[in-house]
Design brief:
Layout lengths: L5 E5 L8 H13 L5 E6 L19 H6 L5 H4 E5 L2 E4 L7 H8 L3 H12 L5 E6 L5 H9 L2 E6 L3 H25 L6 E8 L3 H12 L10 E9 L2 H8 L4 H4 L10 H12 L1 H5 L1
Parallel strand pairs: 1-5, 1-6, 2-4, 2-5, 6-7, 7-8
Antiparallel strand pairs: 3-4
């Protein structure tokens, strides 16, 4: 059978919760496990496109990926490392949103393109924008797994429960009539702190009965990423966090250990092997 890539969308309707950091670090960690990984920067703010040093820049980027019916990987996939490539954001004015919204197959085309033409990749990770829109919906529809980082504070917890899950519910309801399903959502607590407030919101997020409020399966992972300087320093150095900090005496563990635990719980490696 022809191999198809595992597509992961990193999504949240709130900006600043760590979608780009998650996408970049997850992609680099998986590439170090001998998987061929493609990152896709589907945000008008090209943070993921600037996260790592690009070794070879492709002629085109995100716009061509979605709008060109003859697109091939070599046209749009820039090379970061041998096993890690990226489709760069090239839509600063947000025109692609209108194209996706106004094109008959706009919301489903990305899924078909990636599954049929990007089979050289084991895993494809899509970094989505914070605002709800047609392009974000296309990335959710394309996914085999949705990952959502949630910061345990009042604003982020409320946004996750009401808006991120609300968006997933709307898409899941529409998908039923179109003959497909929206992928399960796996959320993890990000930038956790050893404070009463952070711990209280973390407990609230974990305690909800998500089957009663969401049309797709929701799992709150045991893995957490604490608010530690190692991840920020790794970003500033344009390095994956797991390479930047391999060991640590912190109680929460090193960046390598934290990413290892997250990837193990996501079970991506077993699913693509």
């Amino acid at each position: 059978m022809k191999k198809t890539p595992k597509i992961i969308s990193v999504a949240s309707t709130k900006g600043g919760v760590g979608k780009t950091t998650t996408s970049a670090n997850l992609g680099a960690f998986l590439s170090d496990q001998d998987l061929k990984v493609l990152l896709i920067d589907a945000d008008v703010q090209p943070s993921l496109s600037e996260y790592y040093v690009i070794d070879e820049i492709a002629d085109f980027g995100l716009t061509n990926l979605i709008t060109n019916p003859q697109v091939q990987p070599e046209l749009v996939a820039s090379k970061i490392e041998e096993n890690l490539h990226i489709v760069m954001s090239d839509d600063p004015e947000g025109d692609l949103q209108n194209w996706v919204r106004n094109t008959a197959d706009g919301r489903t085309r990305l899924k078909m393109i990636l599954k049929k033409r990007f089979c050289e990749y084991d895993v494809i990770i899509i970094d989505t924008q914070g605002a709800v829109g047609a392009l974000q919906e296309a990335t959710i529809i394309a996914a085999d797994m949705i990952i959502s980082p949630v910061i345990p504070d009042k604003l982020c917890a409320g946004e996750f429960i009401h808006n991120t899950l609300g968006m997933i519910n709307r898409l899941a309801e529409s998908a039923e009539f179109m003959g497909f399903e929206i992928a399960p959502l796996k959320a993890f607590l990000n930038c956790t702190a050893n404070t009463n407030d952070s711990q209280a919101y973390a407990a609230d997020i974990r305690s909800l009965e998500y089957q009663a409020i969401c049309r797709v399966p929701v799992t709150i992972l045991n893995s957490e990423i604490p608010d530690t300087v190692a991840f920020r320093d790794a970003t500033s150095s344009q390095m994956p966090a797991h390479r930047y900090e391999k060991t640590s005496t912190r109680k929460t563990g090193s960046a390598f250990g934290l990413m290892s635990a997250l990837v193990k719980e996501l079970d991506v490696i077993n699913e693509v092997q």
